[in-house]
Fold:
Amino acid sequence: MRNIFNAAVLTIIALAAPGALAQQAVPSADAAIAAAFAAAPADWKDRLTPDQTMKVCSEHKNHPPAKEAEEIQKRAQAAIEYPADGKFLGDWKKGESLAQSGYGLRFSDYPPTRQNGGNCYACHQLAARELSFGTIGPSLLNYGKLRDFKESEVKALYERIYNSQAVLPCSNMPRFGANKILTIDQIKDIVALLMSPDSPVNK
Amino acid sequence: MKFGRIVLAVLCASFALSSAAIAQDDAEKAIEQYRKKLKEDPWSNPGLLDADRGEVLWKTPRGPNNVSLEKCDLGKGPGVVDGAFAELPRFFEDAGKVMDVETRILWCMVNLQGFNRADLVKNPHPAGGKPVKELGAIATYVANKSNGMKFAAKLDTPQAKPVVKLGEELFFRRSGPFDFSCASCHSNPGQRIRLQALPHLSDPKEARIAVGEWPGYRVSSSHVMTMQHRVYDCYWQMRMPRVELGSDATVAIIAYLTKQAEGGEISAPSIKR
Structure:
């Protein structure tokens, strides 16, 4: 009995071998990424593994089914931290310089020499006078004016920047607050850039 | 009154948008003209100096084994360079892997010339203003020997297909503190970062043009940038660590992009912004 089993195993190996020789053992995406970034410092390794939200978004090419979308949104909403003073409007001038800066978290940005930027202009139009703006995200020109500077919109905007996934599951926009790219105060400055009547975005 | 304000706002917005778009169009037209002139006078492309340097490097005995790369098999037989790039990436029996042009040259430098792989992949890309390194110069030479040909890599073979599939998965894989993937910037037509137009790489029409332009001479950093360097730079922007040249992941992404670009014309080295 055992002999027959062994013979069967050997036959299977023999049959599989020619194919196996000419075939590359293609790694899984996780294994390929681990190998491609094997030289990364230990404190960078967590960047290699997508969290549940990113995993679902990647799997569905950013078009998640309704149930998954709802889970992403709920998880994101639960993780939003609000300003201790309950105020959402910071200094729009600081917000404008944050919107211009793409500095931060790249391997060439260590040790950090200044605070991280929000890099809003990379993807959005904001103030009319800045002509060098990207179009990956929608235009935000007159953002506050078009919303009548409503207080509810101010809070909604804070949440949107803090965790874009709370508003639009699988949004392309980074989760600036949730992922600790920007501080709560920096997010308030960007909220002011978009929602202050005297900001160049609304002029 | 309120309606009037909104109309005015929309008008202002569309005016600002269109004037920026016009500025952008003008810039693109100027660049297009510059490229056309370069095509008419190919000797004005500084990238060709690196192709020449690469040819010398290919033919000169080097490394611990003091041999040239003229026995290196790029897929069409040892030493055949003409048209080899147009059929890469491909599966190599001797290495048991699918390889793109740079990974294959790296393999030959290690296995024929005796160079140390770890040394070659440690810091393989030039800083701004510095010329492309030796491996990149050789890749520029090899790519230039397929200039004007069409991408015809055999990526439907049983060996290459799963690599292309892995590349597609990695193209859409979001990770890092910004949640970015290749698709964050390259999966829609007509988009830009700041004023820089972004190719829609999951669309074969745009991929054929964009992929055919690597390696390319990058005016803003005044050196030739190779495809492996391009992928490395994208991961840098994605806030990921330094990706290793010749890793299965970068080869898979390049295989996926080349599959998307199938049939596109190679114009290497090109001139980039």
